[in-house]
Specification:
It is a single chain. With 291 residues, this protein is an alpha/beta fold. The chain has a single domain, classed as 3-Layer(aba) Sandwich (Rossmann fold), CATH 3.40.50.1820. Helices cover 44% and strands 15% of the residues. The chain has an eight-stranded mixed sheet with strand order 1-2-4-3-5-6-7-8, sandwiched between helices. Helix 4 crosses helix 9 and helix 6 crosses helix 7. The chain is globular and about 50 Å long.
């Protein structure tokens, strides 16, 4: 039976992908750009058309979106990002606030000259997308998709329940990553797949991984970003049942500006557990957006 801590962690962090990096050469170009503070950010680039930017959650790499890269690159320009200190991006000892990481995404959008991209953020990246809207507005955003993130008016309330786990994460990163990854799926996954995910996660230094958690739960107020998202009137929240409180909060703050899609029977990695359904819901949303 899941502990309260496990449920909390499932609601706020990211989960893994489906293929090894060697498989990516067939579908996506691997490239880098340099941020304004000198960090090399890695990204995958495939297809053409309206841009969709996929951002993974805590400690996960860009290639976790492979099922989405394969599908959406048929009709869209798909970009999947390794956030700083994740995947193949640089791993500096600074710059891990949600505001800084969202600035990295804005600079990538500008670097590629993307017009009205749809931003898709999973788990921890949900808060980063809200900070993106707060800092840079939504004039050049086609739509915003939040995937099973923990969004609340009191995120700092999470500190007490997970502070002990943050300490364990620094003491034995491999063990904690192994246990955490295995707890995230509701559908069976191959052992080699789970090991690839664990290996990818531990590439983020332990202290940085903990700092990312702390910076996320230290956010005191999402109101400014949500107000700008409400004005954009094009937000989708895709979630599994344990994230219902986040869905209720977003509906309260965004009203008719947000569309809610609940995936019963799937885990936090719902785009891995049920990629066909996820891709269908996302495709319908993107198709509905103004050109």
């Amino acid at each position: 039976m899941r502990t309260r801590l496990t449920v909390i962690l499932l609601c706020i962090f990211s989960v893994p992908g489906v293929v090894a990096q060697a498989d990516l050469a067939q579908t996506a170009k691997s490239d880098f750009f340099q941020t304004s503070d000198g960090i090399r950010i890695h990204y995958l680039d495939a297809g053409s058309g309206r841009p969709i930017v996929f951002i993974p959650g805590w400690t996960m790499p860009a290639w976790i979106w492979q099922k989405q890269i394969d599908e959406f690159s048929k009709n869209y320009h798909v970009i999947a990002v390794d956030p700083r200190s994740q995947g193949e991006s640089d791993k500096p000892p600074y710059g891990h606030l949600p505001e800084t990481r969202s600035r990295d995404y804005k600079e990538l959008v500008d670097h590629l000259g993307l017009k009205k991209p749809v931003l898709v953020g999973w788990s921890m990246a949900c808060g980063e997308i809200i900070k993106y809207a707060e800092q840079f507005g939504t004039d050049n955003v086609g739509g915003l998709v939040l995937v099973d993130g923990y969004v609340t008016d009191k995120p700092s309330d999470l500190f007490a329940p997970i502070s002990g786990w943050m300490n364990l994460l620094q003491q034995d990163r491999q063990k904690q990553a192994d246990g955490f990854v295995r707890s995230m799926f509701k559908k069976p996954q191959p052992e080699d797949y789970l090991k690839r995910i664990i290996d990818a996660s531990v590439q983020t230094p332990a202290d940085t991984a903990v700092l990312l958690i702390y910076n996320m739960i230290a956010v005191k107020d999402f109101s400014a970003g949500l107000d700008k998202m409400k004005a954009n009137r094009a937000t989708l929240f895709i979630y599994q049942p344990e994230s219902q409180p986040s869905a209720d909060y977003l509906k309260l703050k965004l009203g008719d500006s947000v569309r809610l899609e609940r995936f019963d029977g799937d885990g936090h990695a719902l785009f891995v557990d049920d990629p066909e359904k996820f891709n269908h819901v996302l495709a319908e949303f993107v198709h509905s957006l103004p050109k």
